[in-house]
Amino acid sequence: MGVAGLLPALKSIQVTKHLSEFAGQTVAVDAYVWLHKGVYSCATELATGKSTHKYVDYAMHRVRLLRHYKIEPYIVFDGGPLPAKQSTEQERKQRRDEYLARGNILASQGKHAQARECYVKCVDVTPQMAYQLIKALRVENVFYVVAPYEADAQLAYLERAGLAHAILTEDSDLLVYGCKTVLFKLDPVAATVVSVSRKDFASVTHSSSDISLVGWTDVQFRAMAILSGCDYLANIPGIGLKTACSLLRKWKTVEQVVRSLILEGKKAVPQNYLQEFRRAEKCFLHQRVYCPLSKQLVHLTDVDGLDWNDDYDTFVGQ
């Protein structure tokens, strides 16, 4: 989930903070992060069709923890499937089906511990499970929104629109979306989070990381992330985060990077890679989201005046 290696590369600017430091603020939360973690405690029940609400209890415990420290949570749910992630979702479903079949075989053999390991990997969060959490949120008057498509874009929009001061997630993609303050690794016992602030990017240097963000714009950071491989576009084989950073520093633009790789002939650059790169970039910039203020669907970033077409429109969610 997210850009492989990005969070470790930003370790030098990660700051552990106590939740009390965010008192009086609204923090937008990726609901499915909590739901996915919540199912670990009841994976066997869910995989075998038994009734359980443990995943709701897990999420609501964290909602109450934030409120205890005077933080107002704004819970964001994933919505419909985004066309841009169709291949990624198909691969994930295939893996879940394989783990479910393996788990059932192990359970039938009495190997329940091994079966549980498979069940943990096969359980998916369903809309019905999300709805159970929504009902609990309504009871306690907690703000929530179901995104038209991906929660990531919706979370980014809430921060950009001034409806949230920070984002709580486990997905490094939020940094690629341009979020200013992203919180990771909520520790409910210590009541701490690990904060990454966009304003500190310039402090990431080769002396502290495998990559350097000194002097880089949002455009260059986003290009590096996409080039290294993301949910919307597989990487060119052999191109990870460190290599993507080096290539962009040398050749300046993605077009020049791809051209040099093709001429060199050592990497297998997929056909139409540049076209697919541009479509992936559109997802990070212009995915459709719901605006709670105007109560209508809007683009994360306005497309007026851009060279926009029906293909892009479908890709980022109609």
From TrEMBL:
It is found in: Nucleus. Its cofactor is Mg(2+). The keyword Metal-binding applies. One of its GO terms (cellular component) is nucleus. Keywords: DNA damage, DNA repair, DNA-binding, Excision nuclease, Exonuclease, Hydrolase, Magnesium, Metal-binding, Nuclease, Nucleus. Residues 1-99 form the XPG N-terminal domain. Signal peptide: none annotated. Residues 138-213 form the XPG-I domain. GO terms for biological process: DNA repair. Its main location: nucleus. The keyword tRNA processing does not apply. GO terms for molecular function: 5'-3' DNA exonuclease activity; 5'-flap endonuclease activity; DNA binding; metal ion binding. Belongs to the XPG/RAD2 endonuclease family. EXO1 subfamily. This is Uncharacterized protein.
